[in-house]
Every structure is written in structure tokens, then in C-alpha cells.
Design a protein that fits this description.
- The chain is mainly alpha-helical.
- The chain contains 16 helices and no strands.
- Helix 5 runs antiparallel to helix 6, helix 10 packs antiparallel against helix 14 and helix 11 runs parallel beside helix 15.
- The protein is globular, with a radius of gyration of 21 Å.
- Keywords: Cell membrane, Membrane, Transmembrane, Transmembrane helix, Transport.
Length: 414
């Protein structure tokens, strides 16, 4: 079934895939409740809760380089398992967090665990996937994550419907248990063990990446990709509801369209790239993304019925852009990094994602306040800048000009 959808043959990597699936399911259950849980189970106010969560997230950001170094020294699998344990512990104590301080500490530990997970996930996928098949594997991981988020989101609606403290606590404890199960499954994963002492870098840190011009541009390209992707979570829901006045079901429907298309179409999209030059594939993705933003803007001039139809069509176009760009950029971020420094290099990519998560809400809400033209003019300008960066990338990063093969290169080693 997986191969028919264009995904890789899982084979001996079933434990790894199962661990990722369980992690994604647990995350999908928790994401819709992350703010509501503490609002429903404690006396902490919305503003205080927002401050606690913001501080917790900002406090973790300086640790991202250390996560990369840890991946390079002890191994991606070990860091990912440590992330599972940290998150399990944090969620297990959530029911006893009834003050701003305790919530901030617990959320900070969970965020650190999540940061360690993402810092180790990319290098671990790179170890497991053979060269030439990395777009397929990164696409598969992206599809698996979206499918887990979608199913988890449906399950979280049960807790929201019941609405009792016990129902919310049950979700938290189930999430903690899911991380422990993922830890156990990861113990069975053969990922090459720890790095050999002789292969460890003498010098590491962001200075190593800063001297790599090609990778700097790649990180910028991924940051811009992350910024335009944030429109799904920030701009679109507010634009549909407040600026267009569309029916309340539209934001949810757009999320479902995005989730389902990625879950079912990611593998087929990656297979369709076979033989195409990587940077040109990303340029094509930018074209789809920008076209979807133009469609969103055009909906402002239409009736509610027509605007709804255009918005749903734009969601499909937008998702195609995500389907195409994500696996290629992920594969490039893994392959363009030296083996001995891969954890450090990919932690810089993770920092770019974290930065986009911090900047996008502030930037996009300001643009929304200025009206539809600004709301979509800003993301369109980012698409233009993204395209310029990708064109420059093709000149300085040789791997950006290679072709997607979707076939293992047996002669190469990870």
C-alpha cells in the first residue's frame, strides 16, 4: 500500500516508522488543547498563560546549538530518545501545574524535548535513508506527521466535547504514555550507534555553519519557506473569518484539505519529481504557493459563495507547493551538511523554523490589520525573495543543481 502511494518500503525500519507515527498522533491530540488545557484546569488567566508559554519557548531557543552538538557527539537516536523521556515527564506532571511558574517550567521542559526531537529527527532520517532516496523518506515523514496530526486532532475533539477536567487529564496522560512507547520502539532502531571517536569534529558550533556560504543561503531559503507556511496557521483562519466573513467551517475545511492531500499525495508528488533538478523543483513550488496567495486575495472581491469556492481551490494549490518544496529542502539540508557536523548544521535549520514561529504571528497579524492587500502582499513579497535566494543557491550549492533520483545509490555510504 505504501509503495503504491509513492512512499519507501519500510522493511526493517518498522520500529522507527511506528515511533514517528505514535509521536505524531500524540502531538496531533495535544496541539488543539495546548492552550485550552491550562485554561480549563487551572485559575491562570489567558494573558498570564500566554506570557508563561512565550517565555518558556524563548528560553529554549539558545539551547538549539547545544542540541546540534549533542547529536554530533552522542548520536541522533540517543538524543531523540532523551527527547521522548523529557516530553513524557513534562506531560506526566501537567495535572499538578496550577501556577504560572510551574506551568512555565513544565512547558519549558516539554519545549526542550520537542526541540531535541526535531534536532535529532532530520539527522536520524538521513542515517536511515540511502542517498538518492532522501526526498522519498523526508516526504514520507512529512506525510506521516500530517496524518498523525489529522487523526489526533479528531481525537482531541472528544476531550473538547466532554469538557471535564478528567477528560483533559486523560489526554495529557495518554500523551505521556505515547512518548514512553515511542522511546521503547526507538530502542529497537538500528541507526548505526554512536559516532566513532575518530569521526568527531574538533571544532563545532554555529561558526562552522557561518563560514559555509552555500548552507547559509540554504538556511535562509528554508526560513522563507517556513515563513510562508505559517500563513496556514496565522493568516488564513483570521482572513477567512474576519476579513471575508466566510462560514465558520471554512478554516477547518482548509486544514483538512491540507492534511489529507499531504497524507495521501506526498509520496506521489515526490515520485513525480524524479529526474528533475532540485532548485527548479523548489522554484515550481514557489510558483504554486504564490498563485495560491493571489487566489486568496482575489476572493476578497467575490460573493461569499464564490469566495468559499476560490479559497478551497487555493488551499489545494497552496498544499501542492508544500508537497513539492518540503522534501527537497529537507533532503538538501541533510546532504549539504558534512557528516561530522550534520547535527550542528541541521540545528541551524531548526533555529530558522523556531524563528519563523516567533516572527510570523507578529508580522502577519500586523498585515491583517492593514487589510487584504497587505495580508497577502507581504507573503507574496516573501515568495519573491524566496525565489531570488533559490536562484542564488543554485550557483553556490552544487547539490541544489543535482537531480532527484528517488533511487538508492548503493555505492555511497551514509
Amino acid at each position: 500500500m505504501l509503495t503504491r502511494l509513492g512512499f519507501p518500503a519500510v522493511g526493517r525500519h518498522r520500529a522507527f516508522v511506528s515511533a514517528l507515527a505514535i509521536d505524531a498522533l500524540g502531538s496531533g491530540i495535544w496541539m488543539p488543547l495546548s492552550l485550552l488545557y491550562f485554561l480549563r484546569t487551572t485559575d491562570v488567566g489567558l494573558v498570564e498563560l500566554g506570557v508563561a508559554m512565550t517565555v518558556a519557548n524563548l528560553a529554549v531557543m539558545p539551547l538549539v546549538p547545544l542540541v546540534g552538538r549533542l547529536v554530533d557527539t552522542v548520536g541522533a537516536k540517543q538524543v531523540l530518545q532523551a527527547a521522548n523521556l523529557l516530553q513524557a515527564g513534562a506531560f506526566a506532571v501537567y495535572p499538578w501545574c496550577d501556577s504560572v511558574g510551574l506551568i512555565g517550567v513544565a512547558v519549558g521542559v516539554a519545549t526542550l524535548g520537542r526541540t531535541m526531537f526535531w534536532g535529532a529527527n532530520g539527522p536520524l532520517v538521513t542515517q536511515i535513508a540511502a542517498p538518492g532516496e532522501r526526498e522519498v523518506w523526508f516526504g514520507f515523514v512529512q506525510a506521516l506527521r500530517n496524518a498523525g496530526y489529522g487523526v489526533g486532532g479528531l481525537l482531541s475533539s472528544v476531550a473538547l466535547t466532554v469538557g471535564t477536567g478528567l477528560a483533559f487529564d486523560a489526554v495529557v496522560w495518554a500523551n505521556a504514555a505515547s512518548y514512553l512507547l515511542a522511546f521503547a520502539l526507538m530502542s529497537r532502531v538500528d541507526a548505526g550507534g554512536r559516532p566513532a571517536r575518530g569521526s568527531l569534529p574538533r571544532r563545532s558550533g554555529f561558526a562552522v555553519v557561518a563560514r559555509d556560504r552555500g548552507y547559509r543561503l540554504l538556511v535562509l531559503a528554508i526560513f522563507l519557506y517556513a515563513m510562508v507556511e505559517m500563513t496556514l496557521n496565522v493568516t488564513m483562519p483570521v482572513y477567512f473569518a474576519d476579513l471575508l466573513g466566510l462560514p465558520g467551517w471554512v478554516p477547518g475545511a482548509v486544514f483538512v484539505v491540507n492534511t489529507v492531500l499531504i497524507g495521501l499525495g506526498q509520496g506521489l508528488a515526490v515520485r513525480s519529481m524524479t529526474g528533475r533538478v532540485r532548485y527548479r523543483v523548489v522554484l515550481g513550488a514557489i510558483g504554486f504557493t504564490a498563485s495560491s496567495f493571489v487566489m486568496m486575495l482575489a476572493a476578497d472581491a467575490l460573493s461569499v459563495g464564490l469566495a468559499t469556492a476560490v479559497v478551497l481551490a487555493a488551499a489545494v494549490v497552496y498544499t501542492v507547493g508544500e508537497l513539492v518544496a518540503g522534501p527537497v529542502l529537507s533532503a538538501l539540508s541533510a546532504e549539504a551538511a558534512p557528516d561530522a557536523h550534520r547535527g550542528t548544521y541541521m540545528s541551524v535549520v531548526q533555529l530558522g523554523w523556531n524563528l519563523s514561529g516567533a516572527l510570523a504571528p507578529l508580522a502577519y497579524t500586523a498585515l491583517l490589520a492593514a487589510g487584504p492587500l497587505a495580508a497577502w502582499g507581504g507573503p507574496l513579497a516573501l515568495c519573491g525573495l524566496w525565489a531570488l535566494v533559490v536562484l542564488a543557491l543554485a550557483r553556490v550549492l552544487p547539490r541544489a543543481s543535482t537531480r532527484v533520483t528517488n533511487a538508492a545509490e548503493e555505492s555511497l555510504t551514509v
